[in-house]
Design brief:
Elements lengths: L3 H31 L8 H7 L7 H7 L7 H4 L4 H8 L2 E3 L5 H7 L8 E5 L4 E6 L2 E7 L4
Antiparallel strand pairs: 1-2, 2-3, 3-4
Length: 139
């Protein structure tokens, strides 16, 4: 047999839990409406970056332009890890003539480089680890 206090406590816990759940959902929804796809503050991008969600990988590469912490996604990773994160990497020979020409200029001429998908993001490798992320533009 339960007393009235136990029932009140249980109802209070359920009420507080429901309020917290609804508040969290409202915050997540407002966050997602405030930061649309292509914005590095977008919830889906942040979850993908942390490894908890999948998003369009071309959009992810494009979104990196505005991400102040984009190097964390690349530097220190192996080619295999980057291929897993971005779907595929392209060799210097597989990219557009413009990107290829830029990648063959100093200081990258004799370096091992790959490109993230079909984006202008070039990754420079020393050995098997990425050491630099370069946005190719205006070379």
């Amino acid at each position: 047999m339960t007393n009235g206090t136990g029932t009140i406590n249980r109802k209070l816990v359920l009420l507080v839990g429901a309020v917290l759940l609804l508040t969290s959902a409202a915050l997540a929804l407002s966050w997602n409406l405030s930061y649309l796809p292509g914005d590095p503050k977008n919830l889906a991008y942040r979850l993908w970056k942390a490894g908890f969600a999948s998003i369009d990988l071309d959009l992810a590469a494009d979104t990196m332009i505005g991400d102040a912490h984009r190097d964390e996604l690349v530097v220190g990773k192996t080619k295999t890890q980057l291929e897993k994160k971005f779907g595929y990497m392209l060799a210097r020979e597989q990219v557009t003539p413009y990107l290829r020409g830029c990648s063959q200029a100093p200081p990258w001429r004799d370096r091992d480089v790959s490109f993230i998908r079909k984006s202008p993001w070039m990754v420079v490798f020393d050995g098997d680890k990425a050491t630099e992320l370069v946005l190719i533009k205006g070379c």
